[in-house]
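Suppose a colleague, Dr. K., hands you the sequence of a protein chain of 355 amino acids and asks what its three-dimensional shape might be. Before reaching for any lab equipment, you can write down a predicted structure in token form. Begin with the sequence itself:
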Amino acid sequence: MMTISNRIFLLILITTSLSTLANFILTQHQSMSLHHDSEKILARTLVRSLRDALIQDVINDNQLRITNLLKSLKSHDNPIEYLYITKGIHNTVFAHSFEKGIPRFLVHSNNPAIKQSGVHLVHKYQTEHGLIYDYSETLLTGLDASLHIGINQTKIIEQLKKNNQYILTISIIILLSALLIAFLLGRQVSKPLTQFVHQIKLYGQGNIIKLNKLKNTSPEIKQLTTAFQCAIVERQQAESSLKSSEARLRGLLNTLPDLVWLKDKNGIFLSCNAKFGTFYGAKEVNIIGKTDYDFVSKDIADVFRKNDKAAEALGQPRTNEEQLTYASDGHKEWVETIKAPMYELNGDYIGVLGI
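The predicted structure, expressed as tokens, is then:
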């Protein structure tokens, strides 16, 4: 007859093994699906998101603005190898994201214009950077302008391989951790274990705990106590990693040439980047917690606040032009400002994000 400890061990072993196996198989299946469709999905998503922003500029021949937009998209860490727009019956390149000019494999290609609707694979290029899928779609029927997006399929495959390796490693770690916990729980269900649970509760409440005494009770509790101490260290390391990730995000925002800021529903600044600091002539730490009224005249602050509330009422991104005077050096410039309402996952309104 199986003991309670063995039953606990067997139950956790079977449950965790089946769960881990099912999760790994499902993830593998999803990865294979993404392997075949991810680049087209990415191209279709980009076209849909850029169409409205590009059409008017293409009509107005605003080449510089389109070029800056395409380069900004290319600069991020993603599988996008290039973006360019052709215009006219001869498919002349109107704007592009290339830093060193149009590469040879595109100059010598003879891709026909894409007339049908929807994103289509125009060509595949084997380059020194990998296999590039060139997708294209007409921006507007009758406009004779098409958006081309080069997706690096090699990068996508490499990333999927890394993801699979990571998932497999995590699955093994989860399974081994579950086996260890099952063994520890199955060996001892007694007073020392109750004391240990009590110490865990104290830790969860933020209190200082004493685990040294528990190490002298039994080998099983000693192992469990050691594992818990390792978990505390890992948690501290995870918190440190999170702080590093936040620092990298902050660094990314500070390298952007645009002003970026976030206000709450009352117009109080929650965050901003370094470029925005030059606008108000102050560091982020001196801006957070304050409002526009602390830096500019009431008339100007009223305009900013009015635009914030308009974006909130609209419930979606809203664009307006504003003339800004930089406090850092006094120069003025007209900027196109995009203000979008931000919400919590539960739908609660946070405030307005401005770019």
